[in-house]
Every structure is written in C-alpha cells, then in structure tokens.
C-alpha cells in the first residue's frame, strides 16, 4: 500500500505498464516516502536492492537512532528504478563484508584514562561513539558493525573499524557526516577529520622477483585514484631519498604511480615495505596503503673446486689439464660468470658457463712454471653475477710445483776406506723447497742420516752437502738425497762402498816407547781385530824406511811384527810406525813408536824379556789385549836396579774402555742423534756404579767421552740433560780433586776440556715445543729460552738451586736475535774449583756459561750477578775462560768486562759469551799503593836524571876519557844509563796498559816486556862490566890490555848476553802463550817460569858485584906496614863509606833487596825500600857516577869559561883537596895498587909520581870517581 504526497505510502514500479496483479507478482516496488523532488525509499522484508545500483544508495536523513528501523535511500523523482527484488546472494550488500579502518578527531583534550580500556572514561567514550558510528554507518549496504578500536592523543583521535559491504566514497562520506548528527555536542567532533583507509586497492610489484645482496631493486605501487601525496615506509621507518634510495611519483587523472629504487641491497634491507597514497573526497580523507614483504638473500656459491696442487711440468697434468668450477644453489635467467687469475705463475684457462655454474679449464704449460717459482700459489677467482648488480666470488688456490731435477755428486768415485772422509753434494734446480732428507739404503735396511753437524744446507742455492769426516761400515750403502716440497718428493742417489781399513786408535802397538841397543834386534808389533775380510798390505816403517811385516793370527787378532836392528850406532831417537794398505790403495798409520838408541852395550842395566835399557831409561807399553779389543792407555816402566819397574799405569778399565768405543762409534754413526739419549742413560748408570774409582786414566777417558758426544745435536728432553749432568757431577766430586790436579798438567787441561764439553752440549740442545727445560743436578743448573718473533721480554734467569750460592744472567734486546734462536745458560758450582788459576787467586763464585744458537749482534751485552762465596777474599775480577789462551790450554782472562761490586755480590757486564766467574785474592795490594807512587815518581826522577847524565857525559867526553881505564869507566856508565833509560821508558809504557785492556793490547804488551827484559839485563851486564873492570885494575895492576880488546869484551857482555837471554826466552815461551803474565806486562811465572831468565842473571850479577865490593872493602881495611894512627883509621873508615855509597848504585847492589820482597808475608817496609832504591837508581848514577866525579866537575867549570886564575886555583886545590880518592897519595889508593903485594909502609919521595904510577893511579881513580 503506497502513500501519497502527504506521507501516504505508495507503490511505484512496473505497475505503470502491467496489470495490477502482475505488478505485485513481478515488480515488487519499494516503500517510498515522497517529498517535493525526491523520495526516501526502502525495501520490505525479504526484498533487497539490486547490486547494479548499490553504489548509488544514499541513506535518507534521519533524526532517530531507533534500532531495526529500515534504511531508506534517497531517490529522485520520478522514480524509474531500480526496484527492490527478492533478496538473493547477488543483492546489494549480500557479498562478503569489507573491513574499513577509519579515524576521526574530537576537538577535546586527551585524557590518559582513554589509554586504559577498563577506565570509566574509556567505556563511556566507546559506548557513545559506537552508538553514533552504528547509526551513521548503519545504512551502508551490507553493514555489519562499527566499533571503536582505540584513542590516540593529538586532541583525541578516535580509531574505529566499519564492517560493511562495498561502499562508494560518496556513501562513506555521507555516512560520516551523519555520525556527527548522532553524537552529543560535548564531543566536538571535527567534521573534516574523517579518514578512511582503503585496502586492497593498491597494486604493489617488486622487481626482480629473486633479490640477492648487491642487487638494485625496484618497488612500484599503483592505485586507480588521483593521489595528492605518496610516502614509503620500511617497517615503521620513513624512507627518504639517499645515495641508495630514490623515489619517483607519477599522478594523472585516473591513476597514481610511485616507484622506489634501492641499489646495492643488503640483508638489512629485508622486511616489510609500505607505500601510502593520500587524497580527499569532499570532506573525507582517503588513504591507499600497499604492503609487500621483501627478502634479500646472499648470493652463495654452494659448490666449487677445492684448493689443489699441480705439478706443472708433469706430462700427465699437461695432457689432462685440471678443470675448475663454481656453482650457486639456483638457476637465474640472467646469471653470468667470470674468472680472474692472480699469481706469480700466470697459467690461464678457457671459461665455460651453464645455468648455475661456470667452469675454467686450465692450460698448464711447462714454460710458464719456472723452477724458482715452484711452490708459489696462484689464485683463481670465480665471480658470478645476477644481472641486477649482485655478485659473488670464490677464490680457488692452486699451488704449482715443479718436479725438481736433483743431481748428486761425490768427492770419491765409488769407494772410500774406513777412517777416511768423503762428501756428497746434492743439488736441485728448485730452490723453494721445504726440506732435504738423506737416507742410506743397504739391503733391506733404510737408515736416515741424523747428524746435523755433518749436513750443511744452503737454501739459496738449493744444495746440501753431507760431509763424513770418518767413514765406518755404518756409512756403506746407497745414498738417497730427497728434496721435499709439500707432498712432492724428488730424489737422486749414489752408491758408496766403504772398504775396510783399521782406524788408527784401533791399532795396538808394542812398544810405545822403548830403548833400543845398537846392533841388537828389537821386536816391533802391531795388532788389529781379525774380524775383517780385507787382506791388508802391512809395512813396518822406521825412520821412513819400510820393512815387510810378518803376519800371525793370535786369537781374535791379526798381529804384524818385524825384528828391527839399528846399525848406525850414533846417539839419536828413532821413530817407527805400522802402515796398513787396503785393496784400493788407501793407507793408515799407527801411532808413532819412539825408539831411543843406546850405542854402548856395556852400559846396559835392564834386559828382561829382550827389552834392554840403562838405569833411568823409560819403557812405555800398550795396555792389555782383551778378547776382542784392547784397553786404551799405556803402562810406564823405568829401569831401576837392573829391572823394569812399573811407575805408572794409565790403562782405563774394561767398562770405561767399552764406553769409549761406543762413544766413538756413536759420534761417527749416521744415527748419532737418535742413539745419543740411550747412550747417555747407559753412560750415567755405568759411571754412577764406578763413582768410587780413583783412576786418573778413567777420569780422563770419561771427559773424552763427554766431549766427543757433546758435538751431537739432541732434543732438550729433561731426562737426557739430567743423564749428561749427573755424569759430570760424579767426576767433579770432592773425592776426585787430587786426580784433577794431575790431569790439569796435561797439554790441554782436562778440566778445560770438560768445561768445553758441557758448553758445547748445551749449545747443541734442540728445543722441544719451543722451550728449553729448567734442569738442575748436584753441581749444575741449566736454564734457557727460545726467541720467538713476538717475544720482547729480556732474557733474565736466576740460578738458586746450587747450594747457598746464587747467580743471575740478564741479556736485553733479545728481539734483535733471529726468531727460533735459543739462549742456554749453565751454572757450575764445582767446576770452577778444578780449573787452573794463577797463584794467589781463587774462583769465588759460581761459573756461568751462556751460549747462543746464532751469531750475536755488535751491540750484544750480558750482565751477570755473582754472589761471593768467601767474603774474606778481596780485589774481585770479572774473568772468563778463554779456551785459546796458553797455546789452547785455556786460562782465565778479563777482557771486555766491567765490574761493579755491591756488598756480597759482584756484577759483571761483558760484550761476549764464554764461561764467566769472579777471581779474588786474599792479600792483593790495592792499586795506587805507596809502592806505586814511589815507583812512578822515582821513575820520572830517574828518567830525567839519566837524560841529564847522558847529556853531561856527551859534553865532557873528550876531557874525561884521556886514558884507557877512564875511557872504559865512562863507556860502562854511559851504556848503563842508556840501557836503564830505555827500560824505564818502556816501563812507563806498560804502566799505561790497564788490566782490562791487557788482552786487547797483547802485542804491545809482548813488545814492552821484551824490551824491558832486554834493556834491564843490559843495564845489569854493563854494571857487571864496570865491576869486572874495577876488579881487573885491582888485581892485575901491572897488566895492561888494549882498549879495543876491552871494548870488545864489555860490548859483547853488555849487549850480547842480554840479547841471548831475551831472545831465547821469548822464542821458547811465546808460541805457548806463556811469555807474559795475564795481569801485567812482565815475564810469566806461573806457567813457564820465564821470569827466571831475568832473576837468575840479575842475582848472579848482584852477587858478583857484591863480591867485588867486598874485595875493595877488604883491601881498604888491610893494614899498612907499621901501626896506624887514629887519623889514618878515621880516614880509612871514611873511604870505606864513600866506596860503598859509590859502588852500590853503580854496581846494581840495590837489586839485592829484591830477595826480601819475595819472602811470604814480608814487611811492607822492605817493599817500600826496594821500590825507593831501584826507582831512584838513575838519580844515584847521576850523583855518584857523574856529578861526584872531580874530573867531570873540572871539565864543566872549564866549559863555563872561568878565568885563568880560577882555573889554576881549582887545579891547585884539586891536588890537595879534590885529588881522586884512588891517587897514589891516599892510603886506599896505595892499598889497591899493592893488592896481593907486600904489605908495609911506603914513603912517597916526591909529590909527582912516576909515569907508570900515574897511569895505574889514573886507572883506579877513574873507576870509582
């Protein structure tokens, strides 16, 4: 039922053209309420608007919020359709509802309670708003609900959700305006703030579909609407333009398009990307949102060729070249690949490509792989690209090796004899190798050569030299030299046949030394082991004459003998030996046999066992022969009381002898390094069992064993070091001290050899796991370290395990040493007490030796701190043991060390490495003592006095040498002064050489010692000449010898004899380095007793001159004929005193006081007196030999041009007062001239003596003036 224009419902529709009944059955009409221009129509229950006009349905204005009121939609009049239809699935609003997120702003203040869903304010707001939203949007087609979802600050922003069918912007905008009508005014809704978010209207595309790191990607959003603004988000972060991001927007009337480009993407660019378009429809804001998830993956190469090694000159490799490949885990349409080559060996290849892989076939050629480049790595880089910028690469490393051409050469053809040396040189054309290995193949046995000392390798020239100094049967076989580079081995071989020949030490001789009677046969025997297939040619050689030897087998030995008879009966020593020659013509000689010829049979005293000898002759025989060997050493016999009696047995025991043989075999073995630990353990066990043995021969043999095996490099295992050190502990025990005294008298002191052995053993220790263990035994302590590349710590080791004594070693700047260098220090508590020292000196601390495995640099310094053992000893010296001193006997030296004394410790700073310690003495006088001052001041005065003396003598020479006696006297005085002057000058030179620089200035020291020795002896012999001339004139008064003859005698005596003494001394002692002392430039006493070459002549001359002086005094005291008056006795006493004063310095009698200084603990007064008298000898010679001479004074006065009267007065006075004391008018003179003559009183008849008397008087006078 329809109304009219006054609100009466009316039915409109198809009834205009159909019958009434058809109108209701076919064209159901809506119920409309009409107004002037439009109607508000709604469909009855069970009917709905058709979908074709759904978007045009605009709800009619309503003032009521009553529920269930049908929605009316505005229709223009005349209403021509569409009309309501029976409701079906295609009707308007019957499809799936759409959720629209919307928001609106309330112009009210925001309260925090709106954040709390349980607050009353929140609930009230939500209820009121939900009611208004449902009323406003309730007439949208397919409306389901409108719900508030939350509030945001910014005034109050209300988020709500509308669920309805598809609605047009016009419908939404109209419904939104209705909301404001249904909401109370206090909410102050802003009508223009309604915003609708339009979902599923944005077309979002991403290119490329598969994104990899490094790609450039493009994100594009399109919407069928005109957008005012576009915004991009990555997650919640707004994207802005940057170096990697660029945005572009294109808006036209129908569509809007936004493009985001990102270059060089990474995995951090993965995530959700959102594009938002914003626009307005009437009063409503519209938001178009598009979202896409982006996943950026790494471009992974999942399979590839492995790193490989290629022998580039291998024919097989060249025929089948390797193929390299790499692949990713998926197929990409635009995937491409490339290969790059980087390396010293530039071997390229041919690339190929498939959907997800690329291959590279190498073109290996011999010419591209040089020998010096063998072992170098070439890197092949496989690079895959996606076509969008992403790329991935993989490095495949190919190590190219060149098979080495190895050559081996020998110093011998194919054969060498036992005991002889040979060398093998192995060369390779590839220098970049890893290691070189030597092996000996003999039958089924393969033996590695493990002797680092016999293999010398030069890596730069790719050569290795195996040098065998003493071949044994262990060296027989085929030698294989192998150069290894990684897993590539290249070898060469050569066969060496070792032909048997006895070693010199394995030849037993008898005798070793024996007397031989001229014309009497003497058996000479040599024996070797019978364990040989070689038939030797054996000769007995005597004085280089060869004699055939008779061969005889004795048990396990082959003995060769010859009965030699000497026919030339002249006293001499003969030398004999046995010569063995093998099948290849190589020979070995036995030790020398010394035969001492006895020319006369009548003096034979001993004749046992056909061994003849005189009383006191020495016979030396070899030790006993055992089952398969013989004992080392010898037995010494002496002919005494007509029988040979054993004086000394130097034979080693059987146990030690076996150890000595084993050591010699081990040292000469190819596997010395491997066998040394077991040998050391066996040696220690045997020596400990024999520790109570007191044989010096056994002790010396043990030291020889330790020295021999110390040359073998061995790993620094703690047990190995302890075995070696324990053996040393046993032989340096206190119970062995007397044995060491005897052994140190040998040409090379055994203690020096032992020290050298321990030092060499420590130097040859090889680190284990880059470390040297800390090891200590009873008398030895060892510490060390390995220098690593990044080790900047100093070498600082403290030794505190050897009793109460401590020491420390500090070496700084060890970073300058090569990497993997080793530093090893050993402290000795007992060895210092058995090493020889100078008399009065004592080793007063531990001995420390430090060795380096490399050459030390120029700025090397080592600081050692020693604790004093005996605090009562004084004057410490920093010393080191120099193995080369004393003609390689070894001695303590103090070169290049500085000393700092700190209470109980002494610090030694040195710039070299050898065994160090400190020497101290109980009573060494201090430097700068009273004697030193007296000596130096006195020498200065003497030198000046001697110069003045020589000048005066030269000035008055012609005046005072007018007769033979006076001439000879002044010749003696002048030469004495000259000799002493030269000697004193050289003495001053030696005083400038300090103890610390003594060794460095050894040549100057030797020269100074020689000249001091020579010219002091010259001075003594000229004093002797002066005394002999005096004695000659006293005894042989009437005998007259020519001046020429006397000059020849005194010059031979004054210079010839000293020259013989000096030259003989230096010739005998200098080759043995025992000419000078170690601490002063003077003749040696401790080692060679060279100082006796000065002391004995000097004391003999002093004794002779003392005798001459005594003769003079006796003759002065001899009475004249008749009784003496008191006046004469006083005059005689005066003459005696005057003679003593003159003769004592002139004849060198002051040197006799030197006897008092050599007495032990003599009083210092004697030392001072001796220094004073002899230092001032030059002054005494000037005063008593020159200035006291009346003739010299007279001659000097004449040279000063005095007046004639003065000269006459002087001459007249001289006749009375200054007449020479030996003139004929003086009693003493008369006594001398009548020596050994008649006694009695002589009367002088005239004041002018006869000519003969004058001559004799003048001679005597000239001697003592």
Automatic annotation (TrEMBL):
It is a multi-pass membrane protein. InterPro entries: Adhesion_GPCR, GAIN_B, GAIN_dom_sf, GPCR_2-like_7TM, GPCR_2_Ig-hepta-like_rcpt, GPCR_2_secretin-like, GPS, Ig-like_dom. Pfam families: 7tm_2, GPS, Ig_3. One of its GO terms (molecular function) is G protein-coupled receptor activity. Residues 191-285, 404-497 form the Ig-like domain. Residues 1-23 form the signal peptide. GO terms for biological process: adenylate cyclase-activating G protein-coupled receptor signaling pathway; cell surface receptor signaling pathway; energy reserve metabolic process; fat cell differentiation; regulation of lipid metabolic process. This is Adhesion G protein-coupled receptor F5. It comes from Meleagris gallopavo. The lineage of its organism: Eukaryota, Metazoa, Chordata, Craniata, Vertebrata. The gene is ADGRF5.
């Amino acid at each position: 039922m329809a109304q009219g224009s006054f609100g009466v419902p009316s039915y409109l529709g198809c009834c205009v053209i159909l019958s009434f009944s058809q109108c209701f059955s076919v064209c159901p009409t809506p119920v409309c309420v009409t107004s002037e221009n439009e109607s508000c129509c709604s469909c009855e229950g069970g009917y709905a608007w058709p979908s074709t006009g759904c978007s045009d349905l605009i709800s009619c204005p309503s003032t009521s919020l009553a529920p269930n009121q049908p929605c009316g939609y505005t229709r223009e009049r005349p209403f021509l359709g569409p009309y309501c239809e029976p409701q079906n699935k295609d009707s308007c609003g019957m499809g799936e509802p759409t959720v629209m997120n919307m928001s609106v702003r309330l112009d009210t203040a925001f309260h925090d309670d709106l954040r709390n869903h349980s607050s009353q304010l929140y609930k009230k707001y939500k209820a009121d708003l939900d009611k208004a939203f449902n009323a406003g949007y309730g007439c949208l087609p397919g409306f389901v609900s409108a719900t508030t979802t939350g509030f945001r600050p910014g005034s109050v922003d209300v988020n709500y959700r509308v669920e309805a069918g598809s609605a047009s912007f016009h419908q939404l905008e109209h419904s939104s305006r209705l909301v404001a009508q249904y909401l109370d005014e206090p909410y102050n809704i802003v009508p223009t703030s309604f915003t609708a978010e339009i979902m599923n209207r944005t077309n979002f595309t991403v290119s490329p579909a598969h994104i990899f790191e490094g790609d450039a990607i493009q994100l594009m959003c399109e919407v069928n609407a005109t957008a005012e603004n576009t915004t991009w988000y990555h997650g919640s972060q707004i994207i802005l333009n940057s170096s990697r991001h660029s945005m572009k927007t294109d808006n036209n009337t129908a569509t809007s398009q936004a493009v985001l480009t990102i270059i060089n993407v990474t995995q951090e660019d993965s995530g959700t990307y959102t594009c938002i378009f914003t626009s307005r429809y009437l009063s409503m804001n519209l938001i178009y949102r598009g979202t896409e998830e982006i996943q950026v993956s790494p471009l992974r190469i999942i399979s590839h060729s492995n790193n490989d090694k290629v022998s580039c000159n291998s024919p097989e490799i060249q025929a089948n070249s390797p193929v390299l490949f790499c692949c990713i885990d998926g197929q990409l349409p635009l995937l491409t690949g490339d290969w790059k080559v980087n390396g010293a060996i530039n071997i390229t290849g041919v690339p190929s490509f498939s959907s997800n892989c690329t291959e590279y076939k190498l073109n290996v050629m011999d010419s591209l792989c040089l020998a010096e480049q063998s072992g170098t790595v070439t890197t092949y880089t496989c690079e895959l690209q996606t076509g969008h910028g992403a790329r991935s690469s993989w490095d495949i490393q190919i190590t190219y090796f060149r098979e080495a051409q190895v050559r081996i050469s020998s110093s011998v053809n194919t054969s060498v004899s036992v005991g002889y040396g040979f060398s093998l040189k192995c060369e390779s054309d590839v220098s970049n190798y890893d290691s070189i290995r030597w092996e000996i193949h003999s039958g089924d046995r393969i033996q590695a050569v493990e002797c680092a000392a016999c293999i010398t390798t030069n890596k730069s020239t790719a050569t290795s030299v195996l040098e065998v100094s003493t071949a044994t049967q262990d060296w027989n076989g085929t030698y294989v030299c192998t150069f290894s580079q990684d897993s590539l081995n290249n070898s060469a071989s050569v066969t060496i046949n070792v032909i048997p020949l006895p070693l010199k030490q394995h030849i037993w001789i008898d005798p070793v030394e024996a007397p031989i009677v001229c014309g009497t046969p003497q058996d000479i025997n040599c024996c070797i082991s019978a364990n040989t297939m070689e038939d030797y040619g054996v000769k007995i050689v005597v004085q280089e004459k060869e004699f055939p030897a008779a061969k005889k087998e004795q048990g396990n030995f082959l003995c060769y003998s010859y009965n030699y008879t000497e026919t030339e009966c002249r006293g001499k020593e003969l030398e004999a030996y046995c010569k063995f020659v093998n099948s290849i013509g190589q020979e070995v000689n036995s030790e020398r046999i010394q035969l001492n010829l006895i020319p006369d049979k009548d003096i034979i005293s001993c004749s046992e066992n056909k061994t003849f000898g005189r009383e006191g002759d020495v016979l030396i025989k070899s030790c006993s022969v055992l089952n398969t060997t013989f004992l080392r050493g010898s037995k010494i016999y002496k002919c005494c009381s007509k029988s040979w009696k054993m004086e000394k047995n130097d034979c080693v025991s059987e146990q030690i002898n076996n150890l000595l043989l084993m050591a010699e075999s081990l040292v000469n073995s190819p596997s010395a390094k491997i066998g040394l630990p077991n040998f050391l353990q066996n040696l220690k066990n045997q020596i400990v069992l024999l520790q109570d043995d007191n044989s010096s021969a056994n002790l010396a043999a043990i030291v020889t064993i330790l020295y021999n095996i110390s040359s073998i490099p061995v790993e620094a295992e703690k047990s190995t070091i302890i075995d070696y050190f324990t053996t040393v502990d046993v032989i340096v025990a206190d119970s062995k001290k007397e044995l060491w005294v005897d052994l140190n008298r040998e040409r090379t002191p055994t203690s020096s050899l032992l020290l050298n052995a321990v030092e060499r053993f420590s130097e040859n220790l090889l680190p284990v796991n880059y470390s040297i263990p800390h090891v200590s035994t009873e008398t030895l302590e060892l510490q060390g370290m390995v220098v690593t590349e990044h080790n900047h710590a100093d070498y600082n080791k403290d030794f505190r395990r050897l009793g109460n004594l401590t020491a420390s070693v500090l070496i700084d700047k060890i970073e300058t040493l090569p990497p993997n260098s080793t530093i090893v220090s050993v402290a000795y508590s007992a060895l210092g007490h058995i090493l020889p020292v100078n008399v009065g000196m004592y080793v007063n601390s531990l001995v420390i030796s430090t060795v380096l495995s490399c050459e030390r640099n120029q700025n090397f310094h080592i600081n050692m701190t020693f604790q004093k053992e005996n605090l009562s000893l004084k004057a410490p010296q920093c010393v080191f043991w120099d193995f080369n001193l004393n003609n390689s006997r070894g001695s303590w030296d103090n070169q290049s060390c500085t000393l700092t004394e700190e209470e109980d410790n002494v610090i030694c700073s040195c710039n070299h490495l050898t065994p160090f310690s400190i020497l101290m003495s109980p009573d060494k006088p201090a430097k700068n003592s009273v004697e030193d001052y007296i000596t130096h001041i006195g020498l200065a005065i003497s030198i000046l006095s001697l110069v003045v003396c020589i000048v005066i003598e030269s000035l008055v020479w012609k005046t005072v040498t007018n007769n033979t006696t006076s001439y000879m006297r002044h010749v003696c005085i002048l030469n004495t002064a000259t000799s002493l002057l030269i000697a004193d000058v050289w003495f001053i030179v030696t005083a400038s050489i300090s103890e610390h620089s003594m060794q460095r200035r050894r040549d100057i020291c030797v020269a100074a010692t020689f000249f001091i020795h020579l010219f002091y002896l010259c001075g003594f012999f000229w004093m002797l000449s002066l005394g002999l001339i005096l004695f000659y004139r006293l005894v042989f008064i009437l005998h007259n010898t020519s001046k020429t003859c006397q000059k020849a005698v005194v010059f031979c005596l004054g210079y010839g004899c000293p020259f013989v003494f000096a030259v003989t001394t230096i010739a005998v002692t200098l080759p043995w380095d025992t000419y000078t002392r170690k601490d002063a430039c003077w003749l040696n006493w401790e080692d060679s007793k060279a100082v006796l070459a000065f002391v004995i002549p000097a004391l003999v001359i002093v004794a002779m001159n003392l005798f001459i002086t005594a003769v003079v005094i006796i003759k002065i005291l001899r009475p004249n004929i008749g009784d003496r008056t008191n006046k004469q006795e006083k005059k005689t006493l005066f003459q005696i005193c005057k003679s003593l004063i003159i003769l004592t310095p002139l004849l060198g009698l002051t040197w006799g006081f030197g006897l008092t200084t050599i007495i032990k603990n003599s009083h210092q007064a004697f030392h001072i007196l001796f220094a004073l008298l002899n230092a001032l000898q030059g002054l005494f010679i000037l005063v008593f030999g020159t200035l006291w001479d009346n003739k010299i004074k007279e001659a000097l006065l004449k040279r000063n041009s005095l007046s004639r009267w003065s000269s006459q007065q002087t001459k007249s006075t001289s006749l009375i007062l200054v007449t020479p004391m030996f003139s004929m008018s003086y009693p003493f003179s008369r006594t001398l001239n009548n020596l050994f003559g008649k006694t009695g009183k002589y009367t002088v008849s005239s004041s002018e003596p006869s000519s003969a008397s004058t001559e004799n008087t003048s001679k005597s006078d000239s001697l003592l003036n």
